[in-house]
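User: Can you help me understand a structure? I only have the sequence.
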Amino acid sequence: MAARGCDATTRPFALFRPGNRLVGRSPDGERWDLPPGAADHPMLALVGAGLRPSSATVYRRDVEAFLAWWRDDPAHATTADVQNFLAATCPTPASWDRRRAALAHFYQAGIAAGHWTVNPAVGIPPRRRGDWRCRR
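Assistant: Let's start by predicting it. Here is the structure, written out as tokens:
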């Protein structure tokens, strides 16, 4: 009997493949499309320092989606812009919180590198209710 694993043939949705296209809606309602290879934004180098490899991969994907949605210099984004991105792209509270954390990490790394001085993701409240650490 062959072992059942998590590979591209048994669960193709379980892997992030760099050749996939990211598609969504821009702030003005127009469709955005990030073609393969366009995810090599120079600012993506800020994502991943101090994170586990799996977290870095997910955070990078979330920041790629934001940069494709924003289509401007990330230094010009405001807290309202980040909230609009989260509202447009996060169907669940967990995805909102993860993308919020990814953008906070991205902007904090940009501040440390001297690219900008403000972190627009700070101060955005999480969507999960309650403190899950206190539950038994």
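Now, to help you interpret it: Residues 1-23, 34-38 have pLDDT under 50 and may be disordered. The helical segments are 53-70, 79-89, 93-113. Let me know which part you'd like to focus on.
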